């Protein structure tokens, strides 16, 4: 958390409100004027953001809301894209084949294994992004007990986003989810 950011609420003004408006605009929650005035449009954008991220819905931007905004903005762009949908069984089978036949796919699977997200108590599900189609896919693994390479935090699930150019996986990014890290950046339908 950044302790230098002030708590903002309706009727606040100034450069911190400008930053808030710009951040909310970048995240797709604010479409009003960037004017440094925390008015009703800014408040509604904050409330919409708080609802979407499972935060206390009060329209006030305090340390927790600032922290979530900053965490999301620091994440790779693909994590901030909405519109993920579950793959069909045949799409999942094709995705698994694609991962196994790609060096980057195998590297991601090795990372998942190193962090302990393998076993009979782990459930995998696969998603595709409605905006990017087959160029952005996601593998989600949830296990019955916390896992991870860290001894400080056990993660409840791991999400791997694959970015493709043509049929090749160019890179992947990982999001680890736990109570300690807060609500996931990537919003999935289930």
Can you put this structure into words, describing what you see?
It is built from five helices and five strands, in the order H-H-H-E-H-H-E-E-E-E. The protein has 190 residues and is of the alpha+beta class. Strands 1-2-3-4-5 form a five-stranded antiparallel β-sheet, with helices on one face. It starts with 14 loop residues before the first helix and ends in a 13-residue tail after the last strand.
Q: Short description, anyone?
A:
With 190 residues, the protein is of the alpha+beta class. The chain contains five helices and five strands, in the order αααβααββββ.
**Number of extended strands:** 5
Q: Strand order of the main beta sheet, please?
A: 1-2-3-4-5
Terminal Cα separation, in Å? 29 Å
Give me the strand/helix succession: HHHEHHEEEE
What is the strand and helix layout of this fold?
Blueprint: H1 15-26, H2 40-52, H3 63-74, E1 84-86, H4 89-100, H5 103-114, E2 122-129, E3 133-147, E4 155-165, E5 168-177
For this entry, give a set of tags.
190 residues; alpha+beta; 5-stranded antiparallel beta sheet; 5 strands
